[in-house]
Amino acid sequence: MIPFKPWLKLYMILIRSSLQSRMQYKFNFILSTMLAAMIQIAEFLMVALVLYKFGAIRGWTVYELGYLFAIMTLSKTIYRSLASDVHHLENYLVEGQLDQLLTRPVPVLFALMTQNFRLMLGEILQGSFLLIWSMRHMMNSGQLHAMSIPYTLLMILSGATILFAIGLATASAGFWTTRIQELQTLTEDAAQTAAKYPLHIYPSWLKSFFLFVVPVGFVNYVPSLFILHGEYGLWLLLITVGVSLLLLILSLQFWSYGLSKYQSTGS
Questions:
Q1: Residue 60 bridge partners (DSSP)
Q2: Which of 164, 172, 187, 223 has the smallest count of CB within 10 Å of its CB?
Q3: Is there a contact between 223 and 103 (Cβ–Cβ < 8 Å)?
Q4: Per the structure, how many domains does the chain have?
Q5: pLDDT class for 72, splitting at 50, 70, 90?
Q6: Helix (H) or strand (E) holding 89
Q7: Is 71 part of a structural domain of the chain?
């Protein structure tokens, strides 16, 4: 088994190469960064205008909603930056490109994660600004304290792990179905958008779906109950971390099993 340090060094080399290839088209990089940030900001501003008019959504203020938005945005950004092509596995399956990765002297998932690295600068800037803005107001009002900062950082990392696990499990289903775009719309795109809002605004069956079937609720909503409202205690944050590690282990096992069943396209 290869030690961790050489793996990390190899990963950084491959990521650097992927970034250099993307930076050959600087105008496209700058334009896509600006558009991504504008889309994220516009989405939040629409909700913020409603909150400005009515005050709160089921007891959640605009700053608390901004916090949920920011956590989901930053968690998703980490996942999509470090494992962009896990989300695009369908292309590899349909076009037979996965066969090329199978011939490389590194694990297939490792090779896939270093393909087409995306530096999602727009999402990073937007998410960071929104997080700082919302936390600053809540700290000034006394709602948050200094420990909320490390708690939030841990929350973002565990959230990124959960989203990666969900994305990997969804992608692994492609070893049997080949086409997974519609499934990804449900488990990733729609679920992540819904989880930007407090889950208790949804019917009980839908809330349960986002907690136990596609557990995006553990990315931001569940730990925020403790961090923002002091509910249930610190163990709620620890459970969130435990859920993220469990999902990661299960998704890696499902990936390995699915990969063992993979049949080449022959192209």
A1: 57
A2: 187
A3: no
A4: 1
A5: very high
A6: helix 89-95
A7: yes
